[in-house]
Specification:
The chain is α/β, with parallel strands linked by helices. Helices cover 20% and strands 33% of the residues.
Length: 336
């Protein structure tokens, strides 16, 4: 069963890539600061990291003047972390209320960025990407590699995936969010109202920069610890520390139907952890995560983080839901 199923799925994959169906040539936004002047504080243990260089990419080219200073801030700061149980090399979390940014925390994951692949210029590209998120920007699509807001740093063959500086479209978009000309208080209030989209919920928004883009099934399979076909059989308990928004998660239990890679057996129950969740008061939204639902069947490309818990590779990239006789990527709708 395992061999026949795997052969069949490889056949389906020969001409299939993982490009998303919606081509976003420019980034979007889910909030803005009330002023175009701000200071990004760099945690003292991150002094030797390229945060200042990344911020300068926006300071020198757009109307948003983000300065940097070594120190502590509760609203806008950057820090280096070390986390081997994730697949992101950088991540920004933003607290948003009525479309207005209340705070932004920028993270550089040295588990990845200490690699020799991350040259000084590439590191500055990653920090510049995170600073872009902190200005209010979301990702472009995977096909828009000319933007610094492209969601991946490297392709799986080791080549560079994203631009290392803001494109002209990135610059124009930021300048549209933060006009340079002085305006009246009434116009300022009107502009703030324009950012308060009815569909945008208050909460914390997190934006991962993925270290690697896995462009096909072979690349995903090679990177995964476990590849299974399974069925969601209910929620699992999500444990996290209140206020530690990077670790808010939503977990479900999966019953394995078939194993394509790994040692876990059909009938075994495993737990899948996805980014984003709620503590009952604050909701954390992950730009890259569409949470699994009860009774869904899926093919999952997974990274093991502890004895019985796994994360999908690059969140939505590693999930293919069974719909109308086909397994389709949970976000791009591409067939497996």
């Amino acid at each position: 069963m395992k061999r026949n199923f795997l052969v069949g799925i490889i056949t389906l994959f020969i001409s299939t890539s993982f490009l998303v169906s919606n081509v976003n040539a420019v980034p979007g936004t889910n909030g803005k600061w009330p002023s175009r002047f701000n200071t990004l504080y760099i945690n003292s243990n991150s002094i030797n990291s390229p945060w200042a260089t990344g911020a300068a990419k926006w300071y020198n080219n757009t109307n948003f003047k983000v300065s940097t200073s070594v120190g502590v801030s509760s609203t806008y700061y950057a820090v280096n972390v070390f986390n081997s149980s994730v697949t992101w090399d950088g991540l920004t979390s933003k607290a948003v209320n009525n479309g207005i940014l209340q705070s932004a925390i920028l993270n550089l994951n040295t588990y990845y960025t200490s690699s020799s692949m991350f040259t000084n210029s590439i590191l500055a590209g990653v920090t510049g990407h995170e600073v872009g998120h902190s200005l209010g920007l979301t990702h472009t699509s995977v096909v828009e590699s000319s933007s610094i807001m492209h969601p991946y740093t490297f392709n799986s063959d080791g080549s560079l995936a994203r631009a290392l500086s803001p494109s002209s479209s990135d610059i124009d978009f930021v300048n549209g969010l933060y006009p340079a000309l002085a305006i009246s208080s009434e116009e300022a209030e009107s502009e703030l109202e324009d950012t308060r989209y009815d569909s945008l919920e208050d909460g914390v928004y997190i934006h991962p920069s993925w270290a690697v883009y896995y462009e096909d099934k072979e690349a995903l399979t090679k990177a995964a610890d476990l590849v299974v076909k399974g069925k969601v059989i209910g929620e699992a308990k999500s444990d996290f520390t209140k206020g530690d928004y990077l670790n808010y998660s939503t977990k479900v239990n999966i019953e394995i139907i078939d194993t394509l890679k790994g040692d876990d057996s059909p009938g075994q129950i495993i737990t899948i952890s996805q980014m984003g969740g709620t503590d009952g008061q604050v909701t954390v939204f992950s730009e890259s995560s569409t949470h699994l639902k009860d009774n869904q069947e899926a093919i999952l490309f997974l990274r093991k983080i502890n004895e019985n818990t796994f994360i999908p590779l690059n969140e939505d990239d590693g999930i293919f839901i069974y719909e109308l006789g086909q397994f389709k990527n949970i976000k791009s709708n591409k067939e497996l």
